[in-house]
Prior knowledge:
- By secondary structure, the protein is α/β, with parallel strands linked by helices.
- The protein has nine helices and 15 strands.
Amino acid sequence: MPDTNRRVLLKSRPPGEPRPSDFEIAEAPVPKPADGEILCRTIWLSLDPYMRGRMKDVKSYATPVEIGGVKVGGTVSEVVESRHPDFKAGDFVLGYGGWQTHHVVRAGGRLGPFGPLKLDPKAAPISTALGVLGMPGMTAYVGLLDIGQPKSGETVVVSAAAGAVGSAVGQMAKLKGARAVGVAGSPEKCAYVVKELGFDACVSYRSPDLFGALKAECPKGIDVYFDNVGGDVLTTALRLVNPFARIPICGIISQYNATEMPPGPNWAPILVNRLLVQGFIISDHVSRMGDFVTEVGGWLREGKIRYREDVVEGLAKAPEAFIGLLRGRNTGKMLVKLA
Length: 339
């Protein structure tokens, strides 16, 4: 085992879009586990939009990363040394080890919302614990089924439809008998959403007439709008909602790099249509994990849910890949393969 732990640290807080200079790659000794702890070697690192918020020193639902601190993030790792009876060397675990090659975690404690949890590599590829069978998939599951509550024959629209959360939302909506319409960026992403994921339609948010394009694909209006981006797409969707529509608010990626708060949408449709709009953080819904793993794991094994992983290799490429994620360059789940 190497004696060096390679880490990506937060060097400075970006005022707008993150730059490579905001990150620093540094080395430290590999930590030693104490009694009740396990030492893990990172195999897969998850990159997710929420990480942009952790770079800001503002009040939020989670503590920001300190300057000089390791960037946070979900990980799938191999146990290389265990001082806990429930884990042994060679086990694979889902955790929250961050942007580094090695980390120590107290087994039986809570490293993050979803770990450490022992993984069975025979049940599914271990990388899926960070995607379709992990936090993004569970976000789609809880947000759509618990808040959106789609019914057969209704129309479900989801923004960022080619991303890890949005791609799962549309497929789950179809499994519940709804019409699934995605909003994505490039023609290639829209084609992927329809041809490979089975959405009924997908429109580009870059369309010169987004309202006209979305209206054409939602002739009966929108019953559930699952929002990952906010901004113009939310404003447009609000013009097409039906009375008593439901809007799970999952993310606002359109303003993660904003230096000033943008003007909000016109909330009048919320009043006149008596909408249910609910923001949610998936870590508040850990009690749903058992149902999620059982149902979505079954769909995955039966081939009813498809997924794509957008992989870069090497920890040094994580900052560049993360910047690209915020620009919408990825398709599917963004992962860094470390080992």
